[in-house]
Amino acid sequence: MKRNKIIWASLIIIMMMFVSACGGSDPVPGSGETGEVAKGSGGETSAANSVTIKLWFPGHEEFIVESVKTLIRDFEEKNPDIKVELTSIPWKDYFQKLSVAYNAGAAPDVHGLGFGQLISTVDQDKYMDLTPLIKRDAWEGEKDFYPDILKAGQWKGGQYGLLMPDTRGFMWRKDMFRAAGLDPEKPPATIDEIFEYAEKLKIIENGQTVQEGLDMPTGNGEQIYLSLLLPQGENFYDENNNPTFDSPKSIALISKMAGLVKSGAVTPRHSQQLEGGTFKNGVAAMAFGSPKGFQSLIDQVGMENIGFALPPEGKPGKRTALMLGTFMSIAKNTKYPEQSWKFLKFMFEKENHLKFVDAAKFIPSLKSVSEEFSKKDQWNKVTMDILNDAQGYLPSPDWGTHVKYLRLALEEAYLGEKTPEEAVRTNIQLLKDELNKK
Amino acid sequence: MISRWNRILPYIMIFPNVAIYFVFIFIPVLWAIYLSFTNYTILNPGGWVGLSNYETLLKDGIFHKAFWNTMVFWVLKVIPTIILGLIVAAMLNAGIRAVALFRGAIYLPGVLSSVAVSMAWLWLLHPRNGPINAIIKMIGIPPQNWLQDPELALPVVIVVSIWTNIGFAMIIYLAGLQGIPTHLYEAASIDGATGLKKFVYITVPMLKPITFFLFITLTIRSFQVFDIVYILTGGGPLNSTTTIVNQIVKTAFEEYNMGYASAQAIVLLLITIIVTMVNYRVGSKRTMD
Questions:
Q1: Assembly ipTM
Q2: Cβ of residue A1 closer than 8 Å to a chain B Cβ
Q3: pLDDT tens digits for B13-55?
Q4: Tens digits of per-residue pLDDT, A91-134?
Q5: How far apart are the C-alpha atoms of A415 and B239, rounded to whole Å?
Q6: Does the beta carbon of A20 lie under 8 angstroms from any beta carbon of chain B?
Q7: Across the interface, do A96 and B52 touch by the CB < 8 Å criterion?
Q8: For chain B, does the N or the C end have fewer beta carbons within 10 angstroms?
Q9: What's the DSSP call for residue A365?
Q10: Rounded CA gap, A291 and A365, in Å?
Q11: Residue ranges per structural domain of chain B
């Protein structure tokens, strides 16, 4: 009898140990309580009263990780009572891991967020509204931010993210222009000209495209579509969340894009193909992007063979560029709002910001550093000019649904499954049906 | 007389496994069933929506496409994999030279990371630089965009999957072949049976339990296919290669609609259970025969 009790007691203890081990309770980092020992970013133990905030940053490229580490080192030097524990996660897995962390109650205190990720989840009340902190501290950075960039992180009057923008300017291969008999110093002046140039720049040998006119993914291809649509003064949904990609301009644009696929100026491909885009791989002659994404190509063909300028005109005088980027946000339920805010302020202080964006190849969000940034590199001046007229996705909790049906419409039109008109109308109907159900 | 200790001991021995199953399989499945009745988004728990997610499934054209693709994938993958696995195993069992080399080479894709395998195929199938297009060009066939042509993409993904799984079927069949008593073949030889007849009338029937096992496991693997599709095509073009699992991942982690993704997962679970039960019933009856 006694033996049985021992066995059952042992079983219960093992079960409890197992379940508690699986629970993986998150250690309260540097809660400020006496005796708490927190692990710093460098792995060293800190003083008893120090606080450790967790920082998640998307992107695993060495230059990005190193830039964030340098930022953290500088911050910790000036704030010895705050340690920052960095976790770098590749973009591909980033939001999945972040959402799991939020659901598990283990969200990082400060974290990056993709453009679409913030605007489509901001309504779920998980991120901290920074407005009260900005007002309380009369934070100078607020006035120094480019208004459109600051606005990108706003939702219903609150400031939920501070954006480090990344814009899509127009890039072209001067050597390919030269070979096609085009002036290498004169990129297309209008959106329509892009299509003419793409046809001239394509090279087809034995029925196979060996040089593409334009880097244009046919699968998940909303970014290039938007890069071509924004200069025409349109977006693919409006501020009231209504889809607008069935407008005459949009249909005309999709028809032209489908024409490039049909003529062989573009080979169908998926945007998430592991080998990257065709411009990056030296196959396409033109693309929308920023030089930071094409370093390997620049190393290969030389800076002198690559041109970078504002997007060609859509409407007369209108050269709106697509703006994406990385938002910095604070978790609403952080235990360390003050320390997290202190870190964000540090990150967006003039000197630190310039040092960070330069090393991490972002674009400055602050007006005060733009001049110095422009001097650093021949393309930085263009980048800053692009910022004067750049637009991202409009905030919408249904961003993912809009993008899903736009992608389908584009693909159906490109691959000749439907005419552009049929493709957009069918998918807008499906989109509306889905939105109505929500 | 079995002592009490000996009666309890087996339970203690299986406890770790049961606990792992309970925590990592059973509870998540129950949780997913619950979630399928909610509009849980990735960041918010959401509320009870009853059967709404299941109603949506009935009308969702993309899910129907994914369902159809999964069925096509299942049928066109499982049967060729079993047949080819058996043929290769029989050849290797016949005592050809360098058996170990062939066995290793054929089994290798099955143990390699599916990401590595898919990457290799991406290169082989590359429309511009891929060796497959180079070869077909030499024989006068125009190069193909294998993974971006809605007509070709699914068959290509199936071929890659068959190639990856033949080794698994071959190893299981090899083990089975070595368990067939040799006296059956000897007796057949005395009766004048040819090699083909021995294969058809002895080998194949004796391997029925193995074939049944392979059918079940490959069926389940087919329903769960994700990684190859994700890397080779991302489910495109035009959703021509999307599968149910691919669709679950997209719904959950691109559209952040976890409730609806859970409903899709539950449907997949039910399909798997039903098909496995039918397989089991038919298979065990035939095996008994």
A1: 0.79
A2: no
A3: 999 999 999 999 999 999 999 999 998 887 777 789 999 999 9
A4: 888 988 998 898 888 999 999 999 888 888 888 889 999 999 99
A5: 12
A6: no
A7: no
A8: N
A9: -
A10: 18
A11: 60-288
